[in-house]
Design a protein that fits this description.
- There is one protein chain.
- By secondary structure, the protein is mainly alpha-helical.
- Helices cover 58% and strands 8% of the residues.
- It has 2 helices and 2 strands, in the order ααββ.
- β1 and β2 form a beta hairpin.
């Protein structure tokens, strides 16, 4: 009898190899994600600063706060996509420094 298929031993070996690869890959994914979140937030702050200048060019005055930019549809949110707080002072935006 010549049946084509995998034996239980072959399936177990494949599962062991896959779990070993996942053990190596998952920690790298989490560190990459946190790095990506930081870069995304920095890019959003640059966008906010560009929109502050656009507001100035259109209105001949700087916005009072970031909520003004949200209300006038210059930006979508006063915070970064990851929830980090953006500080607006001296007519520019920056990330709030947190102690880690």
């Amino acid at each position: 009898m010549n049946k084509k298929g995998f034996t239980l031993t072959e399936l177990l070996i494949v599962l062991i190899i896959i779990s070993g690869l996942m053990y190596l890959v998952i920690p790298n994914i989490t560190s990459t994600k946190s790095n990506l979140d930081k870069q995304t937030c920095e890019a959003y702050v640059e966008l906010v600063n560009a929109q502050i200048q656009a507001y100035y060019l259109e209105n001949n005055s700087y916005p009072l706060d970031l909520q003004t930019l949200v209300a006038d549809n210059y930006i979508k949110s006063e915070t970064c996509p990851d929830g980090s707080i953006i500080i607006y002072e001296d007519n520019s935006a920056r990330l709030e420094m947190t102690s880690e």
